[in-house]
Amino acid sequence: MKAFVLFQWSENRTPTRWLTAGLLALLPITAYADNPRDTLQVHGFLSQALVITDHNNFFGTSSENAGSLEYTELGLNASFRPHRKILVAAQVLSRRAGGETSDAEPTLDYGVIDYQMTSNPSRTLGVQVGRFKNPFGLYNQTRDVAFTRPSILLPQSIYFDRTRALGLAADGVNVYWEEHTSAGTLRFRSGLGQPQTGAELTRQLFNGRSSDVTTSEPSAIAQLLFEDSTGQWVAALSTATVNLETSLGGNDADFEFQPWIASLQYNAEHWNLTAEYALRQQALNGDNLPRTFDITGESWYVQYQRRFTPSWSGMVRFDRLINDTDDRTGQRYEQSGLGPAYSQFADDLTLGVQWMPTSRLMLAGEYHIVDGTGWLPTQDNPDARETRQHWNMLLFQLSLRF
Question: CA-CA distance, 311 to 93, in Å (whole number)?
Fold first, then answer.
């Protein structure tokens, strides 16, 4: 995985990419010690957030009392090089985002054996075997580490937290290729493997109507990314094909999901502008299903970030989600008796600020003004009819790393 983050700045007055300790382990390292134990690296991170909403719930009962503290991320990773061309790396993650306490049980976030067949100043070619992070948009590979995110929550129209397991990682084979030229760097990554499912995904898909969700066959994902030689422009195109087996209304069904994401980012001296646009084709096939499910969803956001001082930065973002481009207002969905019309879309205006007094400590806060509940977690809001269309959310987060 060649993960990158493009929203921090260096002191030399140019935008720079930096990686958190949790992902440094997956970068190619040309140096190799005689003793593999000398290449061992161990890092970790911890984040705790407070979520407060006036209506609806997000990551726990956030609309009651003083809010919810049920948003916690704790990770520990290690890597070493038994050979100059081989990297072994893994990360264990404990994450709770609402739900039951048992949801925070540690799981393998990623675990790969990385073999680089070619590594020189002009070209890198390698393959990973194991559980790899999916190359999806600009932030998916680093989304679990708060220091790599431009905000406490990523744009929910593309980086869904309620179904994050589906797009987060896969068990299989991942290949990567980088070509360095005078114009810039071209990166290609592609993976074939079994996506993660589990109880959380079962609860969230189809408004909780599915009784089980499993992988039916390997899914594929690919990304082509170009970064110019100055580091100012980054453009990427990502796509995937996901196939799942589920049961809806007591009948077996096959769920097919194919997203396309176009990403563009411009980095200036003290600010950057990021935009991503996605189309999501979804189909549910089977006999005697209680409803048809063959739709195309649309998502996009525009995000502006600015560094005020070396330790302070701010962000403003508009994020839009449409579940069905043929039913943008959700009226047909409501008329079919499936739920409120506003559950089929969401417009989110976000204002955020981050303060990093040291390189190992970050405090962040952000405010969301939301119209619609299209990405609201089902587990926190089991009855969609009791939700509100217009709602607001305030988040605070403390993050540490070592």
Answer: 27
In angstroms, the CA 265 to CA 276 distance is 9
Q: Give how far Cα 200 sits from Cα of 98, 179, 214, 217, 251, Å.
A: 11, 39, 12, 20, 20
Q: What is the arithmetic mean of pLDDT over 367-396?
A: 94
String of DSSP letters for 116-137: EEEEETTEEEEEEEEEEE---T
What distance in Å separates the CA atoms of residue 100 and residue 200, rounded to the nearest whole number?
A: 11
The string of pLDDT tens digits covering residues 124-139 is 999 999 999 999 899 9
In the block, which residue shows the tokens 């260096």? 10
Q: Give the C-alpha separation, 238 to 380, whole Å.
A: 30
Instruction: Give me the amino acid identity at 82.
Output: P
CB–CB of 91/82 below 8 Å? Answer: no
**What's the full length of the chain, in residues?**
402
Pick the CATH number of 48-69+112-401 from 2.40.160, 1.20.50, 3.30.70, 3.40.50: 2.40.160
pTM beyond 0.70, yes or no: yes
DSSP string, 199-265: HHHHHHGGGGTEEEEEE-S-EEEEEEEEEETTSSEEEEEEEEEEEEEEEETTEEEEEEEEEEEEEEE
Domain boundary assignment for the chain: 48-69+112-401
Longest distance between any two alpha carbons in the chain, whole Å: 69
